[in-house]
Design goal:
Layout lengths: L12 E4 L1 H10 L12 E3 L1 H7 L8 E4 L2 H12 L5 E2 L4 E2 L14 H4 E8 L5 E7 L6 E2 L2 E2 H8 L8 E4 L3 E4 L4 H7 L1 E2 L7 E2 H16 L3 E2 L8 E2 L22
Parallel strand pairs: 3-7, 12-14, 13-15
Antiparallel strand pairs: 1-11, 2-3, 2-10, 4-6, 5-6, 6-7, 8-9, 10-11
C-alpha cells in the first residue's frame, strides 16, 4: 500500500522561499492570485525551480475538498484560462496516472485541467481523503498526494506564500544535484513503470542524472475497474502527468 491507513505524520523540513511564488506567478499568468491559502503547489514546476531550470510542463495545484469547488469556479469563469474538454475523475480510470493506481481512489478524487493562450497548463487536483486536521498548516491529505510521487526530487510542496516543505527526505538536494532517485515507499504497476521510464528519458535530456534502475523495481497487478470505460475523447487528447 502506498499510504498506510494509519499514516504517521511528522514535521517536515521547511524553508521560506517567497521567490518561488514570484516565479510561478510570472510563468503561469494570474493563476497564483486565484488560489486560497489552503492550496499547495507541487510536482515538476517546483522541482524545476530548485534545479535552477526553466519550468517545463504543467502547474500541479493540490486543493482541499472544502475549497476545491470555489477555486475551480474561479478558473472556469476566468477570461484568461480555458478548461480542457472532459474533466477527469480518477474514479473512471484503472491507471489514474499516479505512481500507484491501486490506491488512487484513496488519494486523488479529481483533476480539472485548464490552459491559457500562451500554451501554459494548470491542473487542479482534489484529494479523495478529507482529514479533520493538518500538519504545519497544510491539510494532511495534501501531504498524502506528494508522498505518492515516484521520483524523490518531486517530493516538495510550496504554499502560496512560498513556504516550502520537503516531504521526501533529500528531495531538495536531489533537485540541486539534478539526480533522479526512486521513491521506495511506493509500489507501481507495469503501466506506471512504463510512464516512469518515459519521464526519466525526458529528464535525462534536460541534464538530469538517472540513478533509478527500472529493471529492479517490482510491480504489482493493475487494479481492475468496475466502472464503464470512458469514451476515447473524454480526456481531450491530453495525458495527465505528475
Amino acid at each position: 500500500m502506498l499510504v498506510p491507513e494509519k499514516h504517521s505524520y511528522k514535521k517536515y523540513r521547511t524553508i521560506e522561499c517567497p521567490w518561488v511564488t514570484d516565479i510561478l506567478q510570472e510563468k503561469f499568468d494570474d493563476a497564483m492570485s486565484m488560489l486560497s491559502e489552503e492550496c499547495v503547489i507541487y510536482g515538476g514546476a517546483v522541482r524545476d525551480i530548485f534545479a535552477n531550470l526553466p519550468i517545463s510542463g504543467d502547474l500541479d495545484i493540490a486543493i482541499p475538498q472544502k475549497v476545491f469547488r470555489g477555486i475551480d469556479e474561479k478558473f472556469r469563469y476566468s477570461s484568461r484560462w480555458m478548461d480542457k474538454v472532459g474533466q477527469l475523475s480518477f474514479r473512471t480510470r484503472t491507471d489514474g496516472g499516479s505512481a500507484n493506481p491501486t490506491t488512487t481512489k484513496k488519494i486523488i478524487s479529481k483533476v480539472n485541467t485548464y490552459h491559457n493562450n500562451n500554451g501554459d497548463t494548470i491542473q487542479l487536483i482534489a484529494p479523495e481523503l478529507n482529514h479533520p486536521h493538518g500538519v504545519q498548516g497544510v491539510a494532511m491529505e495534501l501531504f498524502d498526494i506528494v508522498l505518492n510521487v515516484d521520483i524523490v526530487c518531486c517530493g516538495i510542496l510550496s504554499n502560496i506564500f512560498g513556504t516550502v516543505y520537503e516531504v521526501l527526505p533529500g528531495a531538495i538536494q536531489d533537485c540541486k544535484d539534478k539526480v533522479l532517485r526512486f521513491n521506495n515507499e511506493i509500489k507501481v504497476t507495469k503501466t506506471s513503470l512504463k510512464k516512469l521510464a518515459n519521464r526519466i528519458a525526458k529528464l535525462e535530456k534536460r541534464g538530469w542524472t538517472n540513478k533509478i534502475n527500472i529493471s529492479k523495481i517490482k510491480t504489482i497487478k493493475e487494479m481492475p475497474t468496475t466502472e464503464p470505460k470512458a469514451p476515447s475523447n473524454v480526456f481531450g487528447g491530453s495525458e495527465i502527468k505528475f
